[in-house]
Design brief:
- The protein is an alpha/beta fold.
- Helices cover 31% and strands 16% of the residues.
- It is built from 9 helices and 8 strands.
- A 6-stranded mixed beta sheet has the order 1-2-4-3-5-6, sandwiched between helices. The chain has a two-stranded parallel ribbon with strand order 7-8.
- The longest helix is centred in the middle third of the chain and has 18 residues.
- The relative contact order is 0.16.
Length: 259
């Protein structure tokens, strides 16, 4: 199998090239229409920042969203609009940024996300719900490793990895692997499928029209963690996240734990 092709998305999605511009426009419009605290630091590096959006009235808790991009592209500003659904349901939303490969390694990014949640948890009372898309789904899942998480782990009441990359060993056989700073031991150490089964509620989401490799990755994690996987019919890798824009969607309901 050509694993470079197996993990290619845009070429297999009709109009795939148009999605980044759509996301950017929606994200800008969302930021223009709400009051948020932007670029709050959680570390000293320029990308060690997060945005925080508060709902009207007292918040039910905090949803932490981690963006994807194969750990080497995009940033939080492309995804701001995905806060809309949880925010409308009374949850504050923290949208986290991080450094990208090859400037840093995947283990470094994992530590950055944990450090970001340290700051978010200190600032924001109440339960924490973690979610992320693709590489962000991997990073959200990594936060359930007791060796990675901080004291805030006991406040995490649910995690929804969306199209997560749960086993990184296949990436050792792609052209991307030189950017990631992985060898076999590190790939296994950074793979959620090899983590202890978490006590926290986990529901995995993946699109029914995604590439088979992503469906496999979702099923591998569901099997390893003995948790449910929702296969959203007709959704592909670029529109599986669209439910987060809608307060009434099933994805939003799973993210905030309302079902």
């Amino acid at each position: 199998m050509d694993l470079d092709d197996a993990y290619t998305n845009g070429a297999y999605i009709p109009g795939g090239d148009s999605y980044p511009a759509q996301w950017a426009a929606k994200a800008r419009a969302f930021r223009a229409g709400v009051t948020g605290q932007l670029n709050l630091p959680y570390g000293a590096r320029p990308k060690e920042v997060f945005d925080l959006f508060e709902p009207a009235g007292d918040a039910n808790g905090t949803v932490v969203f981690v963006h994807g991009g194969y750990w080497r592209s995009t940033d939080k500003d492309l995804w701001t609009h995905l806060a809309a659904g949880p925010l409308a349901r009374g949850w504050r939303v923290a949208n986290v940024d991080y450094d990208l490969c090859p400037d840093v390694t995947i283990p470094h990014i994992t530590r950055q996300i944990a450090a970001a949640i340290d700051h978010i948890a200190e600032r924001c009372p109440g339960p924490l719900r973690l979610t992320g898309h693709s590489a962000g789904g991997h990073l959200a899942a990594r936060m359930l490793d007791p060796q990675v998480a901080g004291r805030w782990l006991k406040r995490v009441t649910g995690v929804v990895p969306i199209s997560p990359l749960s086993d990184l060993e296949p990436f050792l056989h792609t052209s991307m692997h030189t950017d990631f700073g992985l060898d076999t031991a590190t790939a296994r150490a950074e793979s959620p499928v090899y983590q202890p089964v978490p006590d926290t509620d986990v529901t995995i989401w993946v699109g029914g029209a995604e590439r088979p490799a992503f469906l496999d990755q979702a099923r591998w994690l569901a099997r390893a963690w003995q948790c449910p996987v929702v296969i959203d019919p007709g959704r592909h890798h670029f529109d599986i996240i669209a439910g987060l824009e809608n307060a009434g969607s099933r994805l939003t309901q799973d993210v905030i734990g309302s079902r």
